[in-house]
Amino acid sequence: MESRELLIYLAVLFKGNWDKIYEALQVREEYETQEQQAKKCIANLKSKAITFLDDEYPESLKRVTKPPFALFYHGDISLLKSENILAVVGTRHPSEYGTKYTTSFVKQLCKDFVIVSGCALGIDATAHRACIKNKGKTIAVLGCGINVCYLKSNLDIYEECKKNHLVISEYPDSTIPEPTNFPIRNRIIVALADVLFVPEGKNNSGTQISTWLMAQKNGNVCALPERIDVDSVCNSLIAEGAYLVQSPRDIYEVAGVTPKRPIFEK
């Protein structure tokens, strides 16, 4: 059995569980005899897949802790190797302020950055929709099976990404979403991005996991400031050294990217 076939087979067999796949690879001889089962399994996939061994697999993702052995996807896999990728993450329950400025920033930034986010409620969904509406390109990273849209309210984003953008997951087929999967998938979002933008977030939230991961890779975090009487991870991030951004121009400067078109300020 080819090594890439084995990786896809084990990813399906163990539903994307990294530790179980790793353990199986230590005794790979036991699974290499299951060539017929593997070929049938791969033939029955209702998505496409790449592995750690494939050219399409981005180098940045190979450098994370526990890089996915296989990624399942629908859409344009070449987006993973785009020159400029911006991660946008934040609260699932944004205020009018957070929604407004996520939309206005992404409207400009998607002209020069591929926008990657997690297809969750709130800031994630707002960023994806703003990008799609303004004819940018976006990547949705799921914390569940590639063929599961776990939020029906985001079905429009999921279907549009399948057709014209990219949706990826390390979890195959209809693997059900587990709460622990979502913090784990954040490492993929951060690995793909050059800069992380947090328009609005809460303290002690999943957003902080993403910002910590970006700091670990010596990447740049940008945060929109909030009022001092609001529970805001953004203000905490700025106090700790994140870039305070007041317009899309600030993010271009942090990323070292020259906009192809004029920037329309706030």
Could you please describe the fold and organization of this structure?
The chain is α/β, with parallel strands linked by helices and 266 residues long. It has a 9-stranded mixed beta sheet with strand order 1-2-6-5-4-3-7-8-9, sandwiched between helices. The longest helix is centred in the middle third of the chain and has 14 residues. The termini are far apart. The protein is built from 12 helices and 9 strands. Helix 6 runs parallel beside helix 7. It is 42% helix and 14% strand. The relative contact order is 0.14.
Work out the strand percent.
Answer: 5-15%
Task: Tell me, briefly, the overall form.
Answer: elongated
Ends distance: 56 Å
Question: What is the alpha-carbon Rg in Å?
Answer: 19 Å
Largest beta sheet, briefly?
9 strands, mixed
User: What is the share of helical residues?
Assistant: 40-55%
Mean pLDDT: 94
Please write the string of helix (H) and strand (E) elements: HHHHEHEEHEHEHEHEHEHEH
Structural class: alpha/beta
SS summary, helix count: 12
Strand order of the largest sheet: 1-2-6-5-4-3-7-8-9
Strand count? 9
Flag low-confidence runs.
none
